[in-house]
């Protein structure tokens, strides 16, 4: 009974295919055949063309484990369309830590639960999304609207603040320790 039902389902699928899906065989060198290109018009069709930065570098300056300052580069997100708005969402955040051989096991990363450093990503410190204990938000990182005269762009920055109160903290700020924080940015035009 199962074989009969499976055979009937396969036969129904094959018969449901439109005739244009079958190819016409060409068996003579130099012969030609027609290929239909079926297009349609939709009032809701839209394209997305956005340029994202590949990386943004930041640096924590510290002497003998004591936090001194935070410096960040910037990245530019560009809406390459002649018109329309795109929204950029921060979907996921992960971290890969590199430690100095002399301090192995003491540096857990900038996003570690006990880290006194708070990192945020966004166009301004006030509106930036926190990377520590990240949870995805329905709020976009930024919205970029282009018009017919120019493409539009936004500059995003990594913002960092230290909450250790300036006390020595060799656990987190040993020289030569490093971290790569990977973020996944999602582009939407809705």
Folded structure, characterized:
- The chain is mainly β and 190 residues long.
- It has one helix at 2-16, and strands at 50-51, 58-63, 66-72, 74-79, 84-98, 117-122, 129-130, 142-146, 152-162, 178-188.
- The chain has one domain (50-188).
- The protein contains one helix and ten strands; from the N terminus they run αββββββββββ.
- A five-stranded antiparallel beta sheet has the order 1-4-9-6-7, with no helix packed on it. The chain has a three-stranded antiparallel beta sheet with strand order 8-5-10, with no helix packed on it. Strands 2-3 form a two-stranded antiparallel ribbon.
- The radius of gyration is 27 Å and the shape is elongated.
- The model has no long low-confidence stretch (mean pLDDT 78).
User: What structural class should be given to the helix and strand makeup?
Assistant: mainly beta
Report on the biggest sheet.
5 strands, antiparallel
Q: What is the domain tally?
A: 1
Principal-axis shape equals: elongated
Instruction: Specify Rg, calculated over alpha carbons.
Output: 27 Å
Task: Give a topology summary.
Elements: H1 2-16, E1 50-51, E2 58-63, E3 66-72, E4 74-79, E5 84-98, E6 117-122, E7 129-130, E8 142-146, E9 152-162, E10 178-188
Antiparallel strand pairs: 1-4, 2-3, 4-9, 5-8, 5-10, 6-7, 6-9
Key words describing this protein structure:
8% helix; mainly beta; 1 helix; elongated; five-stranded antiparallel sheet; three-stranded antiparallel sheet
Give a short summary of the structure:
This protein has 190 residues and is mostly beta strands. Helix content is 8%, strand content 37%.
């Amino acid at each position: 009974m199962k074989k009969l039902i499976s055979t009937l389902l396969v036969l129904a699928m094959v018969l449901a295919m439109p005739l244009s899906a079958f190819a016409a065989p060409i068996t003579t060198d130099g012969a030609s055949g027609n290929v239909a290109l079926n297009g349609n018009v939709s009032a809701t069709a839209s394209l997305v063309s956005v340029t994202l930065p590949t990386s943004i570098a930041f640096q924590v300056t510290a002497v003998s484990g004591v936090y001194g300052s935070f410096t960040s580069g910037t990245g530019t997100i560009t809406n390459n369309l002649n018109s329309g708005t795109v929204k950029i969402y921060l979907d996921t955040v992960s971290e890969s830590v590199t430690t100095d051989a002399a301090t192995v096991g003491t540096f857990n990363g900038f996003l570690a639960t006990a880290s006194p450093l708070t990192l945020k990503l966004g166009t301004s410190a006030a509106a930036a999304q926190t990377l520590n204990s990240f949870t995805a938000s329905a709020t976009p990182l930024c919205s970029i609207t282009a018009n017919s005269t120019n493409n539009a762009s936004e500059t995003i920055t990594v913002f960092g603040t230290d909450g250790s109160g300036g006390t020595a903290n060799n656990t987190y700020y040993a020289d030569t320790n490093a971290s790569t924080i990977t973020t996944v940015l999602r582009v939407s035009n809705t």
